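Hi U.,

Before I forget, here's the chain from the pilot set. I'm dumping it here mostly so it's searchable later in email.
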Amino acid sequence: MRNHSMIRNSVLATGLVLAFAAVPFNQVMARDAAPMQKSSDDQTVPDKAADAWITTKVKSEFGTTKGIKAADISVSTNDGVVTLTGSVGSQNEKMHAERVAQLVKGVKSVDVSHLTVGGAPSEQQ
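Structure:
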């Protein structure tokens, strides 16, 4: 009986890992389907896969790091440069998110210029 539970948990865990691993490849496939717009389309498939993997890893780190609201931050990667977009509650959270992203293997630099402090920029007048 214990073996069935262990096997079931192992199969479930494997399924989740495969599902999350498929996300970066779906992003690569979506980029390939889009018409050529940027020079990033000149990347090779391994480069695109590496960027997608970095994006997934950064999102995962945000999801497991206290003090960062991962749902409010979008992550994109191009040639190892991670761009964070969205909003954070404080300047400390912004710097913390930048440090966490920078520590991910393969990240060359982190652009936080599109990450606003205190919510979305006010466009209402």
